[in-house]
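Example complex used in Figure S2.
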Amino acid sequence: MYEKSFKLEIVTPKKIVFKDKATSLSAPGVQGGFQILHSHAPFLATVEIGETKMKDSEGRDTIFATSGGFLEVKNNSVVVLVETAERAPEIDVRRAEEAKDRAIQRLHSKDHDVNLGRARLAMLRAMNRLRVVVKV
Amino acid sequence: MATLREVRTRIIGVKKTQKITKAMKMVAAAKLRRAQAGVIAARPYARKMMDLLCHLVGSLDVSSNSLILPREIGSIALVVVTSDRGLCGAFNTNLLRAAVEHVEKQYAVENKRGNLKVFCVGRKGFEFFSRRQYNVAGKHIGVYNNLVFGQAQMIARQLVDGYMKEEFDKVEVIYNEFKSVAQQRIVIDQFLPVSVSSEDAALAKGSVNYIYEPNPIEIVNALLPKHLDFQMWRVLLESNASEQGARMAAMDNATENANEMISMLQLAYNKARQASITKELLEVVGGAEALKKTG
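Predicted assembly (431 residues):
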């Protein structure tokens, strides 16, 4: 099956996670999820912690667990700038579970030193990873 | 002339030192490879981030954003990035000297009034500044033991917080940039307020009409802290790679010098040995002669 494609790059501070052609990409925007297809208009968005799903030119789906960042569409090429992006096999389930427990503990503690915003984000990240693992 | 035994012990000692410097060189080389890979891996993200920022700053009025708008300068924060450990040649010395020179040249007045706050990343810098007439406002020691993004984030947040509370009106970072394995370059970067070179901004201006989600101002507000975290991360990576490069070069030199020293000592040892043999021979011959005469 032939589908029109666009260039996709998923870049994190650690490495370029993905750089190839894709036919579809859905990402979790701050105002709700959206999907990018070939020849999308120039677009700039912030993305939240969530699942970024792409379909490559051979029609295979890949799900990434991504944490917050940005997405830019220009000249039929898409750049996703996120802090982390992991495919399901790369996710360390034990670590994610531990992180989730730790974050929940911190959220429930009465200690005033606890940074609630950070703990909440940590929990969201961990839960997102676990969700992606389960899906595959 | 040193005695035979003295020279022998020296040789053994130098050889032991050489073993250590050789091992340190190997370790530095291995760490350097990893650090270098980190620097290179971070570059695409840095480039894209900068593109995005330039574009945003160019295409809309962000002068209202307090992280970008320059303020009148009352006090300064200087972040000095050094290493935790020594034995890396002139790596720290050069950087500290450059930092002091920079302060004398630019901020002598502020420093006298105590309006220059020094943030030290790395033990060597802290040891240096805490012993002198400087206002050390913060230290981060041991970040290189486990270099993770969160650490850079923590440092950057501290600086942004201080900046927002108007504890200082400008933040500069001085660090060693990784140029090549054998070369480091001392760089002073302005960290806050965020400056975007006007050329880049002009280039990006009006090139594309984006659809923004949610809206440009919020995107800038989300982008700037990330940008700053990332800048700090890049600085740490660069400095770490430079440190390992400098250490490798220094240890290579030390190993080389040890070699030279060993060959010199060996020569002295051989000479001393020969001299002692000659002396003994003379004594034996002299004794035999004396016996012959009496006999």
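Chain A has a mean pLDDT of 88. The beta strands of chain A are 6-11, 16-29, 32-37, 43-47, 50-56, 61-66, 69-74, 77-82, 85-87.
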